[in-house]
Amino acid sequence: MGHAMIEWIYVGVVVMLLVYLGAAAWDVERFLDHPPKDSKVIKVTGQQWLWTFEHEDGTREIGELHLQEGVPYKFEVTSRDVNHAFNIPDLTVLIDAVPGRINTVWVMPDATGEYLIQCREYCGFSHYQMRAKLFVEEGVSNVSAPIETQDIPVVLPATKAAVVSN
Ligand SMILES: [Cu+2]
Fold it and tell me: 52 to each of 32, 46, 95, 166, how far by Cα in Å?
């Protein structure tokens, strides 16, 4: 095999690798940018110095947000006065809250608990107090869903029984 041939193989491998990486990155980007169709919309409004949340049914919360585990939510984020940034550090949610604009970001909380919501853009005197609490509660679907049993026989090898978990 001549030098030229080896070089072409090398170029081919590199090109395939780049195409693969590009496609994977594009896929992730698409996933992040497009909330699932069954997402519930939460309107988030920042103002000096508090957060207001409006659920799809019109229910409003100030300084607190109650969501359900395992449900996708699309946040439509805006501001009433100056620039803020809506941030839930534990759920890696961060997006600007800008007056006259609606920025969207989505998340599906996968663990119940209490999480911090904060403003991540300096917005005046009480910026440091611009916090809210996120409560992720057990999903209704999880509570009412019938428990499905699987009829898979468990066969443990006699000698390795102690190693098998699940
Ligand atoms: Cu702020």
Answer: 24, 7, 15, 44
The yes or no reply on domain 40-140 and CATH 3.40.50.620 is no
The residue extents of the domains of the chain are 1-34, 40-140
Residues with CB under 5 A from ligand 1 (ion): 84, 119, 123, 130
* pLDDT confidence of residue 165: 46
Distance of CA 15 from the midpoint of ligand 1 (Å)? 45
How many CA within 13 A on the CB side of residue 58?
0
| pTM, two decimal places | 0.73
Q: Is the pLDDT of residue 161 over 50?
A: no
> How far is the centre of ligand 1, averaged over its atoms, from the C-alpha of 145 (Å)?
40
